[in-house]
Q: What sequence folds into this?
Protein backbone atom coordinates (compact mmCIF):
# COMPACT_ATOMS: atom_id res chain seq x y z
CA UNK A 1 0.00 0.00 0.00
CA UNK A 2 2.97 2.29 0.44
CA UNK A 3 3.27 2.91 -3.30
CA UNK A 4 -0.48 3.42 -3.69
CA UNK A 5 -0.46 6.06 -0.94
CA UNK A 6 2.60 7.74 -2.52
CA UNK A 7 0.90 7.82 -5.93
CA UNK A 8 -2.27 9.28 -4.40
CA UNK A 9 -0.20 11.90 -2.56
CA UNK A 10 1.51 12.92 -5.81
CA UNK A 11 -1.34 12.66 -8.31
CA UNK A 12 -4.59 12.58 -6.34
CA UNK A 13 -7.44 10.18 -6.88
CA UNK A 14 -7.69 10.91 -10.61
CA UNK A 15 -4.03 10.01 -11.07
CA UNK A 16 -4.43 6.57 -9.53
CA UNK A 17 -4.86 3.87 -12.16
CA UNK A 18 -4.08 0.20 -11.89
CA UNK A 19 -1.58 0.54 -14.75
CA UNK A 20 0.31 3.40 -13.09
CA UNK A 21 0.36 1.59 -9.77
CA UNK A 22 1.67 -1.56 -11.45
CA UNK A 23 4.45 0.46 -13.08
CA UNK A 24 5.46 1.97 -9.74
CA UNK A 25 5.84 -1.41 -8.08
CA UNK A 26 7.47 -3.02 -11.11
CA UNK A 27 4.63 -5.42 -11.73
CA UNK A 28 2.07 -6.21 -14.38
CA UNK A 29 -1.53 -5.06 -14.07
CA UNK A 30 -2.70 -8.65 -14.15
CA UNK A 31 -0.55 -9.42 -11.12
CA UNK A 32 -2.26 -6.61 -9.18
CA UNK A 33 -5.61 -8.24 -9.79
CA UNK A 34 -4.41 -11.33 -7.94
CA UNK A 35 -4.43 -9.14 -4.81
CA UNK A 36 -7.31 -6.69 -5.36
CA UNK A 37 -10.45 -6.82 -7.46
CA UNK A 38 -10.82 -3.14 -8.36
CA UNK A 39 -9.29 0.31 -8.04
CA UNK A 40 -11.88 0.96 -5.31
CA UNK A 41 -10.28 -1.82 -3.26
CA UNK A 42 -6.91 -0.09 -3.59
CA UNK A 43 -8.45 3.20 -2.43
CA UNK A 44 -10.10 1.54 0.57
CA UNK A 45 -6.83 -0.11 1.58
CA UNK A 46 -4.92 3.17 1.12
CA UNK A 47 -7.45 5.05 3.27
CA UNK A 48 -7.02 2.57 6.08
CA UNK A 49 -3.25 2.48 5.60
CA UNK A 50 -2.85 6.19 6.31
CA UNK A 51 -4.63 5.72 9.63
CA UNK A 52 -1.85 3.26 10.44
CA UNK A 53 0.50 6.27 10.57
CA UNK A 54 -1.24 7.45 13.74
CA UNK A 55 0.12 6.51 17.15
CA UNK A 56 -1.20 3.10 18.22
CA UNK A 57 -4.45 3.18 20.13
CA UNK A 58 -5.23 0.84 22.99
CA UNK A 59 -8.43 0.21 24.89
CA UNK A 60 -9.30 3.41 26.70
CA UNK A 61 -8.69 3.28 30.44
CA UNK A 62 -9.24 6.96 31.13
CA UNK A 63 -11.41 8.13 33.98
CA UNK A 64 -13.89 10.97 34.19
CA UNK A 65 -11.20 13.64 34.33
CA UNK A 66 -9.12 12.38 31.39
CA UNK A 67 -11.62 11.17 28.82
CA UNK A 68 -11.80 14.55 27.07
CA UNK A 69 -8.03 14.83 26.71
CA UNK A 70 -7.88 11.34 25.21
CA UNK A 71 -10.54 12.22 22.63
CA UNK A 72 -8.87 15.53 21.74
CA UNK A 73 -5.52 13.78 21.21
CA UNK A 74 -7.13 11.09 19.05
CA UNK A 75 -9.05 13.50 16.82
CA UNK A 76 -6.21 16.03 16.46
CA UNK A 77 -3.82 13.26 15.33
CA UNK A 78 -6.49 11.82 13.02
CA UNK A 79 -7.12 15.18 11.35
CA UNK A 80 -3.41 15.96 11.01
CA UNK A 81 -2.79 12.62 9.32
CA UNK A 82 -5.62 13.08 6.84
CA UNK A 83 -4.46 16.59 5.97
CA UNK A 84 -1.03 15.15 5.22
CA UNK A 85 -2.83 13.15 2.51
CA UNK A 86 -5.35 15.68 1.12
CA UNK A 87 -6.85 13.18 -1.34
CA UNK A 88 -8.29 11.30 1.62
CA UNK A 89 -10.67 14.12 2.53
CA UNK A 90 -12.53 13.73 -0.76
CA UNK A 91 -13.17 10.06 -0.01
CA UNK A 92 -14.52 10.26 3.52
CA UNK A 93 -17.97 9.14 2.43
CA UNK A 94 -16.63 5.73 1.47
CA UNK A 95 -17.94 3.07 3.89
CA UNK A 96 -14.52 1.62 4.66
CA UNK A 97 -14.18 -0.53 7.75
CA UNK A 98 -10.51 -1.40 7.81
CA UNK A 99 -8.72 -2.44 10.99
CA UNK A 100 -7.06 0.93 11.58
CA UNK A 101 -10.36 2.81 11.31
CA UNK A 102 -12.14 0.30 13.51
CA UNK A 103 -9.38 0.52 16.15
CA UNK A 104 -9.87 4.27 16.36
CA UNK A 105 -13.65 4.03 16.48
CA UNK A 106 -13.34 1.38 19.22
CA UNK A 107 -11.05 3.70 21.18
CA UNK A 108 -13.45 6.61 20.73
CA UNK A 109 -16.48 4.69 21.96
CA UNK A 110 -14.58 2.97 24.78
CA UNK A 111 -13.41 6.38 25.96
CA UNK A 112 -16.96 7.75 25.88
CA UNK A 113 -18.23 4.77 27.89
CA UNK A 114 -15.91 5.71 30.80
CA UNK A 115 -17.83 8.82 31.91
CA UNK A 116 -21.13 7.02 31.49
CA UNK A 117 -22.35 7.27 27.89
CA UNK A 118 -24.54 4.33 26.85
CA UNK A 119 -27.18 3.46 24.27
CA UNK A 120 -28.46 6.25 22.07
CA UNK A 121 -26.38 8.82 23.98
CA UNK A 122 -23.21 6.88 23.16
CA UNK A 123 -24.14 6.64 19.49
CA UNK A 124 -25.05 10.32 19.26
CA UNK A 125 -21.82 11.39 20.98
CA UNK A 126 -19.72 9.12 18.75
CA UNK A 127 -21.25 10.36 15.51
CA UNK A 128 -21.23 14.00 16.61
CA UNK A 129 -17.48 13.82 17.21
CA UNK A 130 -16.83 11.85 14.02
CA UNK A 131 -18.91 14.28 11.95
CA UNK A 132 -17.12 17.27 13.49
CA UNK A 133 -13.75 15.71 12.67
CA UNK A 134 -14.67 14.89 9.08
CA UNK A 135 -16.38 18.22 8.41
CA UNK A 136 -13.41 20.19 9.72
CA UNK A 137 -11.00 18.04 7.73
CA UNK A 138 -12.90 18.46 4.46
CA UNK A 139 -13.25 22.21 5.01
CA UNK A 140 -9.52 22.64 5.59
CA UNK A 141 -8.43 20.36 2.75
CA UNK A 142 -10.69 22.08 0.23
CA UNK A 143 -9.95 25.70 1.18
CA UNK A 144 -7.68 26.98 -1.59
CA UNK A 145 -7.51 30.77 -1.35
CA UNK A 146 -4.29 32.75 -1.45
CA UNK A 147 -3.59 35.44 1.16
CA UNK A 148 -4.21 38.05 -1.54
CA UNK A 149 -7.57 36.54 -2.46
CA UNK A 150 -8.59 36.40 1.19
CA UNK A 151 -7.64 40.06 1.70
CA UNK A 152 -9.63 41.03 -1.40
CA UNK A 153 -12.65 39.10 -0.13
CA UNK A 154 -12.37 40.74 3.29
CA UNK A 155 -12.16 44.17 1.67
CA UNK A 156 -15.43 43.44 -0.12
CA UNK A 157 -17.01 42.68 3.24
CA UNK A 158 -15.64 45.95 4.64
CA UNK A 159 -17.10 47.80 1.66
CA UNK A 160 -20.48 46.24 2.47
CA UNK A 161 -20.25 46.49 6.23
CA UNK A 162 -23.80 47.80 6.41
CA UNK A 163 -25.01 44.40 5.14
CA UNK A 164 -22.40 42.26 6.89
CA UNK A 165 -21.33 44.23 9.99
CA UNK A 166 -20.21 41.23 12.04
CA UNK A 167 -18.27 39.54 9.24
CA UNK A 168 -16.62 42.83 8.43
CA UNK A 169 -15.73 43.79 12.00
CA UNK A 170 -14.35 40.36 12.90
CA UNK A 171 -12.28 39.87 9.74
CA UNK A 172 -14.11 36.70 8.77
CA UNK A 173 -12.01 36.00 5.66
CA UNK A 174 -8.66 36.66 7.36
CA UNK A 175 -8.94 34.15 10.20
CA UNK A 176 -6.57 31.30 9.37
CA UNK A 177 -5.79 29.56 12.65
CA UNK A 178 -7.30 26.32 11.39
CA UNK A 179 -5.63 24.12 13.99
CA UNK A 180 -6.47 26.37 16.94
CA UNK A 181 -10.05 26.79 15.75
CA UNK A 182 -10.42 23.02 15.38
CA UNK A 183 -9.27 22.39 18.96
CA UNK A 184 -11.38 25.22 20.38
CA UNK A 185 -14.45 24.06 18.48
CA UNK A 186 -13.84 20.50 19.62
CA UNK A 187 -13.87 21.82 23.18
CA UNK A 188 -17.28 23.39 22.55
CA UNK A 189 -18.58 20.09 21.15
CA UNK A 190 -17.25 18.18 24.16
CA UNK A 191 -18.78 20.74 26.54
CA UNK A 192 -22.16 20.11 24.95
CA UNK A 193 -21.74 16.34 25.00
CA UNK A 194 -20.68 16.38 28.65
CA UNK A 195 -23.60 18.62 29.63
CA UNK A 196 -26.06 16.37 27.79
CA UNK A 197 -24.67 13.27 29.52
CA UNK A 198 -25.15 14.88 32.94
CA UNK A 199 -28.76 15.72 32.12
A:
Amino acid sequence: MEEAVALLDEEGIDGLTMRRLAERIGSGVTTLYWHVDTKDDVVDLALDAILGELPPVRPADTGDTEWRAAIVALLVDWRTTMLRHPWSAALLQRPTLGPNLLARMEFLQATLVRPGFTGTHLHAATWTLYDYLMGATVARASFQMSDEDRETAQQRLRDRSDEYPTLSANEYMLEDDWDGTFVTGLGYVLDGIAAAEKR
In short: The two ends are 46 Å apart (CA to CA). The chain has a mean pLDDT of 87. The CA atoms of residues 131 and 181 lie 16 Å apart.
